[in-house]
Amino acid sequence: MSVRRWWCALLIVSACSLEPASLPGLPSAITLIPSPPAATRPAGTPSLAPTETPLPSQTPAPTQTSTASPTPGVVSLMAVGDVMLARSLGERITTEGIAPYRELGALLGGADVAVANLECAISERGAPQPKAYVFRAPAAAAEAVAAMGLDVVSLANNHALDFGPEALFETIDLLRARGIEPVGAGGNASESRTPVVVERNGLRLAFLAYVDVPVESRSGFDTRTWSATESTPGLAWADPAAISADATAARQSVDVVIVLLHSGYENRPEPNDVQRRAARAAIDAGAALVVGAHPHVLQGIETYNGGLIAYSLGNFIFDEFDGAANDTAIFKVQLGKGGVLGFEWLPMVIENGSPRAATPDESERILRRVQPITPTP
Q: Domain of 348: which CATH number?
């Protein structure tokens, strides 16, 4: 399918998904969020007004990119779930090239910022770790990520170190060479917790990323062993206290903080307590948005303390899955200095590892998966 036909089909399906009469009881795919009064935030948490206070001196200087755009003060962000480019997908990149990813780029590139969770190493180096599943994509996969139009990718997940630190560092280098900023991993704890700061339309956005997943049942592998220390490379672990400290520090010099969280139980449609605690710690510390991954299926959203939590965006590019794990969506969010202004879901279905526009019937099913969930204490 050509880019134009694919894009038009997506617009038609999205428009159908917005029709209240056809989807009774569902939230509108486009939802506006009013700015909460300051009193709704607990005493002691940062306000949503930007400040000029610099980051503490012990906080590493954030990586920053900048681009001009014609809509001052408002940023459109598109977020997608797990992007896994190994196995059959890596083979196809090697033999067939990256044309399908350019078609995705025609869509994601329309946002001011596009983000994803990169669920694999991109490298020709390293040795597999003692895990049930290890994912390493060929170096050419970095071109596919760039063709998709992604600006920021989280490496804070249970596959970034599948082939050890050598492959992790090559992944980081390959991404940065193409203008894509990785977050949530690095040569030590400070690097892994350093925000990526992106400036768009006069708005400064800080991205942080963390992982906290259960021990792998088949192998007994514990992703926590990959946590970066002050002297060893690794990942940012989703300790609520650390998330709170990092979000508070970042909030002092940016307009909006976004946290990318890799957590939860696989194949479960509801978030668990670990996800909730980490996500809420981010919002309480001043983050406006938390975007989750890891469960491989879509989960609901929650408005909490003036912020928005999307607990899981499921898979986006991933082979060898069936059923609910192949239902996905692009999460499009409008951001301003007050935080999240509104959001929209663009339903999609994964076939042969890659997403396509959902039909109206598929869209109805997908939108039911991302309904607002009932908050728990």
A: 3.60.21.10
| 376: in domain | no
Residue 132 domain-assigned (yes or no): yes
Q: Is residue 15 included in any domain, yes or no?
A: yes
Terminal-residue alpha carbon distance, the chain: 47
Contacts of 95 (CB under 8 A, 6+ apart): none
Which of 359, 287, 297, 293 lies closest to 323 in space, CA to CA? 297
Give pLDDT, residue 230.
Answer: 96
Looking at the DSSP bridge assignments, the partners of residue 256 are 205
Tally of structural domains, the chain: 1
Interval 354-364 mean pLDDT:
98
Per-residue pLDDT, 263: 98
Q: Structure pTM?
A: 0.85
Residues of the domain holding 37: 3-44+63-369
Query: Residue-wise over 316-337: b if at least 16 C-beta within 10 A, else e?
Result: bbbbebeebbbbbbbbbbbbbb
Q: Residue 297 domain-assigned?
A: yes
| Helix, strand or coil, per DSSP, at residue 166 | helix
pLDDT at 376: 75
Q: Is 297 helix (H, G, I), strand (E, B) or coil?
A: coil
The answer to whether 73 and 204 have CB atoms below 8 angstroms apart is no
Mean pLDDT across the stretch 149-173?
98
Q: Is the pLDDT of residue 180 over 70?
A: yes
Q: What's the chain's average pLDDT? A: 86
